[in-house]
């Protein structure tokens, strides 16, 4: 079971920062939010600050993150293996540094959350719609986690 944190950084135009994954175990070559697994005994806001710094070079004070919600996922990965856990989404509007591709990231870019690149992680548009734009605090995801178009992944809003 995975405990995943995702950092949503918004600029003054409302765009969000994405990184293209490179050398990653999952979704290699796709655009996604900076983030990853929380380490044992690590606070969630410290984990998202660490992941964002490692992947895109941005420093965020852990106290600057706002929780946007949580999504429980249970599905299958590219190799048919079961993938389950919890994703926590956080947003920050203040940070230090200039985005740059670092660990497991080949490029970075700012995107309108309703006009994401077609080669983004399949679940990302729906996650942003629910948690960022609609204010959902709790969701569930069921189905294949690697579908290119995301159509078979079923989302349920619970709160």
TrEMBL record:
Q: Which residues form the Nudix hydrolase domain?
A: 1-132
For this UniProt record, the keywords arranged alphabetically read as follows:
Hydrolase
Q: Which Pfam families match?
A: NUDIX (PF00293)
UniProt cross-references to Gene3D superfamilies, sorted A to Z: Nucleoside Triphosphate Pyrophosphohydrolase
Name the InterPro entries on file: NUDIX_hydrolase-like_dom_sf (IPR015797), NUDIX_hydrolase_CS (IPR020084), NUDIX_hydrolase_dom (IPR000086)
> Which cofactors go with this protein?
Mg(2+)
Q: What GO annotations for molecular function exist for this entry?
A: hydrolase activity
Return the PANTHER family for the record.
ADP-RIBOSE PYROPHOSPHATASE YJHB-RELATED (PTHR43046:SF16), GDP-MANNOSE MANNOSYL HYDROLASE (PTHR43046)
What is this protein's record name? NUDIX domain-containing protein
